[in-house]
Amino acid sequence: MAFSVPAKLEAELDELVTHYPQKRSASLMFLHALQEHFGHLPREAVEWTAVKLGLQPINVHELVTFYPMFRQEPLGRTQIKVCRTLSCAMAGSGELRGHFCGKLGLDPHHHGPQTTPDGKFTVEFVECLASCGTAPVVLVNDDLLEKCTVADCDRVLAQGR
Ligand code: FES
């Protein structure tokens, strides 16, 4: 499918640029908007942003690879983020991620997000989700699961979209 930014979105971004003293200062806002629209940032989105802002593609690509909130690949419809920071790690979050990976046929030793071939689930470790007192914590799309158990994980998998 050909990459194409809708005219309405392009007009909004063109207007946004006028609020910055330099075009390049709008880079992060462009990337957030494009990721919101496309679900991730394909190479074409990086190149499009570079052209619009008078930059080289590498200037935009380095932002995409630096900030963990940007995605170069599409995510699954159910996104599972398992906290791996100290409180959660001590409360067993590693086992929870291992359980998800085992049930979904994903590599438990892989670094970074992994998506199932059917596009239903993405599983990844993340840093502190700011709910350390209720560890272990798992974020499933916008739902925070506190004191998460293996049974909770199985419920998430059963309800996956
Ligand atoms: S350590 Fe997991 S929420 Fe803070």
Tell me the structural class.
alpha+beta
CATH superfamily of the largest domain: Glutaredoxin
Helix proportion: 40-55%
As an assembly, this protein is: single chain
Rg, rounded, reads 18 Å
Count of DSSP helices? 7
Bound molecules: FE2/S2 (inorganic) cluster
Biggest sheet descriptor: 5 strands, mixed
Instruction: Enumerate the strands of the largest sheet in spatial order, edge to edge or round the barrel.
Output: 2-3-1-4-5
Number of strands: 5
The domain tally reads 2
Terminal Cα span: 24 Å
Overall form: elongated
* CATH topology (level 3) name of the largest domain: Glutaredoxin
Uncertain segments are none
CATH architecture of the largest domain: 3-Layer(aba) Sandwich
Secondary-structure element series = HHHHEHHEEEEH
Helix and strand layout, with pairings?
Layout: H1 7-17, H2 27-38, H3 43-53, H4 57-66, E1 78-83, H5 86-90, H6 93-104, E2 114-115, E3 121-126, E4 138-140, E5 143-145, H7 150-159
Parallel strand pairs: 1-3
Antiparallel strand pairs: 1-4, 2-3, 4-5
Helix pairs in contact: 2-3, 3-4, 6-7
The chain binds FE2/S2 (inorganic) cluster.
